[in-house]
Task: inverse folding
């Protein structure tokens, strides 16, 4: 691989900070990646799966899957494959420090009031997809339904990939732009994007938007998420974290 960062998180260099969305190191890396880029650009599931394993193993940040196709999502999975759960089997658990633990099927989730947002999606390594339509349930609604106990301070959110986790403070999770997303880009969240249900944290970098969402555990301490254990900021505000302090939010 032209760019590999095995063994540590991507560190922003001084010249990469600020208004440039794409770091020089990433641009250099793109030069050797034309062929891979084309494969990631199409929707063929088999090709994505075949490519995922070597890419994520060599470079868990996804840097080597950066491709020069503007405005497109890159598909990431730290487990090297795309987990699957059918719509019928799917359940979302809300438990921990709550009065009424919830176990919600996809139909249960669909029957609750949905919120629509149109927002950019931005990965911390530089790529951004503008004006993505999202639809889902505000996390705050589910917290209210479950009844958060006074001692609670954080959420620990888990993926059915068995590895990836995320964290939010209760205050962050209660924002109006933090959703349990059932739809993105005008249709159901697809398997590669973390379907049937993923988290969407609009004001923060993409790594907060956990895919293949399985559980919201209400807890009373911070349990840093997968990338946060590997050096990324817990509070991942776009433009104000991870060494980027002057991009517009
Ligand atoms: N379970 C899981 N969720 C995840 C990731 C992952 O590897 N596994 N990658 C994160 C990162 S770094 C980004 S930028 C987005 C990418 O979303 P996409 O794969 O739909 O483009 O998912 C986030 N959620
Ligand atoms: Mo990311």
Result:
């Amino acid at each position: 691989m032209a760019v590999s960062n095995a063994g540590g998180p991507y560190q922003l260099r001084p010249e990469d900070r600020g208004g440039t969305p794409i770091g020089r190191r990433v641009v250099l890396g793109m030069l050797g990646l034309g062929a891979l880029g084309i494969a990631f650009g199409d929707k063929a599931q088999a090709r994505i799966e075949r490519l995922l394993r070597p890419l994520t193993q060599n470079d868990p940040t996804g840097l080597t899957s950066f491709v020069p196709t503007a405005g497109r999502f890159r598909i990431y999975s730290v487990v090297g494959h795309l987990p699957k759960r059918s719509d019928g089997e799917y359940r979302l658990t809300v438990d921990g420090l709550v009065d009424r633990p919830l176990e919600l099927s996809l139909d249960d989730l669909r029957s609750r009031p949905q919120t629509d947002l149109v927002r950019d999606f931005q990965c911390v390594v530089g790529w951004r997809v503008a004006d993505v339509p999202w639809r889902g349930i505000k996390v705050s609604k589910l917290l209210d339904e479950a009844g958060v106990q006074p001692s609670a301070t954080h959420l620990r959110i888990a993926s059915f990939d068995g590895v990836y986790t995320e964290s939010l403070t209760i205050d962050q999770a209660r924002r109006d732009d933090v959703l349990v997303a059932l739809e993105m880009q005008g249709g159901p969240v697809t398997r590669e994007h973390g379907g049937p249900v993923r988290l969407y944290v609009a004001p923060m970098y993409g790594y907060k938007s956990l895919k293949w969402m399985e559980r919201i555990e209400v807890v009373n301490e911070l349990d840093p998420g997968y990338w946060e254990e590997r050096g990324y900021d817990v509070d991942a505000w776009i433009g104000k974290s991870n060494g980027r302090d002057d991009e517009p939010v």
Observations:
- Residues 20 and 247 are 8 Å apart (CA to CA).
- The first strand starts at residue 91 and ends at 96.
